[in-house]
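Design job #97: recover the sequence.
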């Protein structure tokens, strides 16, 4: 292994590992320093991938119990084998993380195993995880891709047994009878869905008066209605003021966010999911003088450069949505720029998906954002209950909503709640990326019968002439 590189990436998550692979493809001598025992970062190890494996398995269990009878498939004695379900999740994680290791070898990226610390512009010291002597490496460009960590809830200590973060919630040894989720965002609703489907009574305690803040309000309302029908209980506008562990589980003291009478809520397990914050512990930002904002996010310019020449940052550790694909896009754009190409990230076309059932997916601006910006827009909506494929599938919950500029017809935002919304949003993202109009989508031939026809119909609705409603 050489000690001088063109690029050293710190962190092997979707930001860092993708940046490293692309840099190597472009002919740059590249190393990626990762201190976890495996590559793939939060996303592959304790985030996107294990959570989706559990969502998939729990959905199959719920289907077997409640949804197959309508198809004439009768099952008796459906049983849950939690150990097998968890083992499958671990296997999926292993396949994905080893896949990245293979890609590193294939592209000749050196994986330097250990914790990196910045010692000077262009120099990092790597301490092996077994505590051996630090090794110093140099590079023309250093990319910080150290990701994020959970936001703790003051006064509520996470032990990953009875009070868990998303990491503990991915590996509970038994199905809790009562699960309280603090935070009605991505993690709370996805992990809450997993355990609800497996049999827990789930209560979501959310500080604001709505779930999924930031999503289009109409989708949030509909999602809450559907989840309530699935058995979720919601305590909105509520904060946790104390938590006490006892032999019967955890007793939370709740108070209305605006103040008022307190109440107690007892549960076997509490999941704290109130957001994530940039992770830069032990990185030595102060040593080299890399500037961060008041939320701990590393400050970068449009080319991901920090205030220290030769040091860049991408992914969860900088501002913007904390999403794997956003981190990867930034990694690619940055190293292409370092290799002399012109590259950029279109932040106006980054999809966001919540993998509940139905899924919720969004790209572009929400109605609330358009109203606040004073932009005149028109709306085209189409329900899945009027889509032939959704009816054939027996999944008719939800709708597609397209927001287009009132005068130019340019698509400004697309919001979908419904079956496979996370897949359907790709078409809308492409539309935004290409600056398409609603009419462009409406005039595009869509295969029949597909769920995608609901996107076409919503576009037709924006033009004032949906066909199937
Ligand atoms: P990370 O993936 O956090 O990777 C950073 C890596 O840097 C880590 O492996 C860490 O060990 C390493 N590191 C840190 N400091 C050092 C150091 N000093 N030296 C060496 N290594 C270091 N996003 C989605 O888009 N879709 C999803 O479905 C999704 N699901 C999620 C589910 C959960 C439960 C969670 C917690 C997150 C989920 N996310 C999802 C968010 C996604 O995981 C993050 O946005 C993404 O991982 C960010 O990538 P990153 O490369 O910036 O950082
Ligand atoms: P989040 O930001 O999505 O949701 C946190 C929720 O907690 C918000 O609704 C917020 O109002 C609420 N909250 C904040 N403080 C609170 C308090 N004291 N009491 C009660 N409620 C409180 O954060 P979450 O769910 O922890 O996920 C972190 C990030 O990870 C997400 O923002 C997302 O970027 C990423 N993620 C993405 C996924 C995906 O793409 N499908 C899945 C899981 C995580």
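Job complete. Output follows.
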């Amino acid at each position: 292994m050489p000690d001088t590189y063109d690029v050293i990436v710190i962190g092997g998550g979707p930001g860092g590992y993708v940046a490293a692979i692309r840099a190597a493809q472009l002919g740059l001598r590249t190393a990626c320093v990762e201190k976890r025992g495996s590559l793939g970062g939060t996303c592959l190890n304790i985030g996107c991938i294990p959570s989706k494996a559990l969502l998939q398995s729990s959905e199959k269990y719920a289907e077997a119990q409640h949804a197959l009878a309508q198809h004439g498939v009768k099952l008796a004695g459906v049983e849950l084998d939690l150990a097998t379900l968890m083992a499958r999740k671990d296997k999926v994680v292993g396949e994905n993380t080893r896949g990245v290791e293979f890609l590193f070898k294939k592209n000749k990226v050196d994986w330097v195993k250990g914790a990196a610390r910045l010692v000077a512009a262009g120099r990092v010291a790597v301490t092996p995880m077994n505590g051996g002597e630090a090794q110093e490496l140099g590079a023309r460009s250093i990319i910080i891709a150290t990701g994020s960590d959970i936001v703790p809830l003051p006064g509520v200590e996470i032990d990953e047994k009875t009070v868990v973060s998303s990491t503990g919630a991915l590996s509970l040894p038994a199905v809790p009878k009562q699960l309280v989720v603090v935070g009605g965002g991505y993690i709370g609703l996805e992990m809450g869905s997993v355990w609800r489907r497996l049999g827990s009574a789930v209560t979501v305690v959310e500080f604001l008066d709505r779930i999924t803040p930031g999503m289009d309000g109409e989708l949030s309302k509909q999602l809450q209605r559907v989840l309530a029908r699935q058995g979720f209980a919601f305590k909105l506008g509520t904060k946790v003021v104390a938590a006490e562990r006892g032999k019967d589980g955890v007793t939370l003291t709740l108070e209305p966010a605006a103040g008022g009478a307190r109440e107690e809520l007892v549960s076997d397990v509490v999941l704290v999911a109130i957001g994530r914050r940039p992770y830069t512990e032990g990185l030595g930002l102060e040593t080299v003088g890399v500037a961060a904002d008041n939320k701990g996010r590393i400050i970068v310019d449009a080319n991901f450069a920090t205030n220290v020449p030769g040091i860049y940052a991408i992914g969860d550790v900088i501002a913007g949505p904390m999403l794997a694909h956003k981190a990867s896009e930034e990694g690619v754009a940055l190293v292409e720029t370092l290799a002399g190409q012109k590259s950029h990230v279109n932040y106006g076309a980054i999809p966001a998906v919540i993998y509940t059932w139905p899924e919720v997916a969004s790209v572009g601006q929400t109605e609330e954002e358009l109203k606040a910006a004073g932009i005149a827009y028109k709306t085209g909506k189409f329900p899945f209950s009027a889509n032939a494929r959704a009816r054939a599938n027996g999944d008719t919950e939800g709708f597609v909503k397209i927001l287009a500029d009132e005068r130019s017809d340019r698509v400004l935002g697309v919001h979908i709640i419904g079956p496979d919304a996370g897949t359907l949003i790709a078409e809308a993202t492409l539309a935004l990326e290409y600056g398409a109009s609603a009419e462009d989508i409406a005039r595009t031939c869509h295969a029949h019968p597909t769920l995608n026809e609901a996107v076409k119909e919503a576009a037709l609705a924006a033009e004032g002439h949906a066909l199937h409603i």
